[in-house]
Design goal:
The chain has 446 residues and is an alpha/beta fold. The protein is built from 20 helices and 13 strands. It has helices spanning 13-21, 39-53, 68-72, 86-99, 109-133, 146-157, 167-178, 211-215, 218-221, 225-230, 232-238, 247-250, 252-261, 266-281, 288-301, 305-311, 325-338, 384-406, 409-418, 425-438; strands at 2-6, 31-35, 61-65, 77-80, 138-141, 161-163, 188-194, 197-205, 208-209, 241-242, 342-349, 362-370, 373-376. A hairpin with a 2-residue loop joins strand 8 and strand 9 (208-209). Helix 4 (86-99) packs antiparallel against helix 20, helix 5 (109-133) runs parallel beside helix 6 (146-157) and helix 5 (109-133) packs across helix 18 (384-406). The longest helix has 25 residues, at 109-133. It is globular. The mean pLDDT is 94.
Length: 446
């Protein structure tokens, strides 16, 4: 099988390739094509992959190209992991928002909207090319904001595009571990929402929901990441365990203040960190894989550090530093390519799963996956407080899609103004002005 990775010069690509190296079964990926607009980044990542493959028999062959059409032709699977505007763009998203006193995180609030406005037109172009050049390919979308971008691509690829995220998987794994599950993969996670906006409402082990036991035990509840981050009392009030990204909603003022006071925003930190990585790998004597591994460890250890500091949550547990989205991607590919049926939490079209949203809305829910793709599992309705957030944020996503399609500046302002974390129409107008000044990719808004 041929796997094409768009954004193939990206820092996380070795995680995917490393997962592929462990797959020895028939029907595995034998060819990996990396595509990126930056030939230097492609060369750096290719060096890391070559060191990963050293000594591995029949490792997937790796080629690299800056020609998108060439990369897509004949692909069986396409991983889309692009970052329009690069990490400099992410840093600008954060800076412009924080200057207005609102959140600039890359998937949440003003930053997520700005990133979406830049990314959707590019993602739509990719979807159209896939439909023309590789109509039988399955697209697995890693690109953030994952739910929004997956929905944009689904309008051209239907159910052959599936969005993935490692946050729900990590959350479920932590809960199962705390509850003493010997094999977390055997636990059924009742999770529902949008990407980076979901809640675990039950965790069933051997047919029994063990979440009430967790919620009733303050010591147990406060012993893992989300308990430390949100606080025991708040989780007990919710009667559910929220995705970590909901910290930006439930503790917004504290998060904004922490990010304003930080020495660097997350985007600026990653921009500088990865610039050092790519520079270091150009040294012919450098051990590229070691440089990458050290950089990755620092990246994972500092993930959401401002939020954890605000909550007094301390450092991340060692078990949470190993990544995870590449494992979801590999399990998804295996299920489709070999009809190895499995259950995964994915971003797919609603198809009546949540009655408060229309059938084309992309949501994040458990899905049964087989050779015909991912099929959302029926879930109970969300409580009112969660329904309100989901509907509000989905309405914003729809305005982003409409602005990207029409090029309407007025619609872009509406998208910002309607977001729960942007509290003023005037702020929304200034955000559009500010982002238009720093992002050439938004010049289409008129």
């Amino acid at each position: 099988m041929k796997l094409t990775i768009l954004g193939g010069g990206g820092f996380r690509v070795p995680l995917v390739y490393g997962a592929l190296l462990t797959d020895r079964a028939e029907g595995r990926v034998t060819e990996v094509v990396l595509h990126d607009l930056d030939a230097g980044r492609l060369s750096a990542v290719a060096r890391v992959l070559a060191e990963q493959a050293a000594g591995v028999p029949d490792a997937p062959a790796v080629t690299a190209t800056t020609d998108l059409d060439e990369a897509l032709r004949g692909a069986d699977f396409v991983f889309s992991a692009i970052r329009v505007g690069g990490l400099e763009g992410r840093a600008d998203d954060e800076r412009v928002a924080l200057a207005e006193g609102v959140l600039g995180q890359e998937t949440v609030g003003a930053g997520g909207i700005a990133y979406g406005l830049r990314t959707v037109p590019v993602a739509v172009d990719i979807a159209r090319r896939v439909a023309r050049l590789a109509p039988d390919a399955w697209v697995i979308n890693f690109t953030n904001p994952a739910g929004l971008v997956t929905e944009a691509m689904s309008r051209h690829l239907g159910d052959r595009v599936i969005g993935i995220c490692d946050s729900p998987v990590g959350l479920g794994r932590r809960i199962a571990r705390v509850l003493g599950a010997t094999n977390p993969r055997e636990a059924w996670i009742d999770y529902v929402g949008l990407n980076h906006l979901g809640w675990v409402r039950g965790l069933h082990i051997a047919g029994r929901d063990e979440l009430p036991r967790l919620l009733a035990d303050p010591d147990l509840l406060g012993s893992f990441e989300e308990g430390k981050l949100f606080g025991v009392d708040w989780l007990q009030s919710l009667g559910a365990i929220p995705n970590e990204y909901l910290h930006y909603y439930y503790f917004n003022r504290e998060a904004v203040r922490a990010y304003q006071q930080a020495e660097k925003t997350r985007g600026a930190f990653l921009r500088d960190q990865q610039a050092h990585f790519y520079e270091a790998v150009t040294d012919p004597g450098a051990r590229a894989l070691d440089v990458w591994d050290r950089t990755r460890a620092e990246r994972e250890a500092t993930y959401m550090s401002e939020n954890r500091e605000t909550a007094g949550a301390g450092e991340r547990d060692a078990d949470d530093l190993s990544g995870g989205y590449e494992k979801v991607a590999l399990a998804l590919m295996r299920a489709i390519a070999r009809d190895e049926r499995t259950t995964l939490i994915l971003n797919v079209r609603n198809r009546g799963t949540l009655s408060v949203l229309d059938g084309e809305a992309v949501i994040e829910v458990p899905c049964l996956v087989d050779a015909n793709g991912a099929h959302p599992v029926a879930v109970a309705p969300l409580p009112d407080h969660a329904t309100g957030l989901v509907c509000a944020v989905k309405a914003v996503e729809r305005e982003v899609l409409a602005a990207a399609e029409s090029g309407s500046r007025t619609t872009a302002v509406k998208a910002f103004a309607l977001h729960p974390l942007v509290d003023s129409v005037n702020v929304a107008r200034r955000l559009v002005e500010g982002y238009s000044e720093v992002h050439p990719g938004l010049e289409y808004l008129k």
